[in-house]
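Incident review: delayed structure delivery

Summary: a single-chain prediction request sat in the queue longer than the usual turnaround. Root cause was a stuck worker, restarted by the on-call engineer. No data loss occurred. The affected request and its eventual output are reproduced below so the record is complete for anyone auditing the incident later.

Affected input:
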Amino acid sequence: MAGQEVQGQKIRIVADTRERDAAYSFENFPNVEVIEAALPTGDYSLSGFEDRVSLERKRTDDLIGCLSQDRARFEKELSRARNFELFAVIVEDSLPNIMAGRYRSQMKSTAVIQSIAAFSVRYRVPFLFCGNRQGGELMVFSLLSKFAYEIRKRFDCLQGPLSSEHFRTFPNNLG
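Output delivered after worker restart:
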């Protein structure tokens, strides 16, 4: 299971307050605490890392709107996320459904695909097609728990050589 990488430690997922009605609960995932807070970019992050990792959740019609009438606002968000260590757009649908035009919009499916490709290249943002809401929740959990695991690994490397014993060997007259 994906939760094994957090090694039994709780991860604190921040869900943007604007996600309130559609937020994932993560109730089927172990060791997750969900905190509601305003996020400047994206819909989900990790507590303490809101400026480094964020995931943007999109239902199909919301995605199509962001590629058409709300395009300028969406590009501003993608631009803000450009320097994040991890940012992705989590799409709660499949690419074949998008290609078949199974959405409520006059936007042609080729234009949708070309816009996604352009944004992926321009802003270095992956669009992950997760099939449905359940797949989206699994992907958000998996990405955030893996990010937390990698951060913990970095911290563990830092702790090794810089233990409290190490500081006791410093001379008292450094000034």
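Verification: The two ends are 52 Å apart (CA to CA).
Action items: add queue-age alerting; document worker restart procedure.
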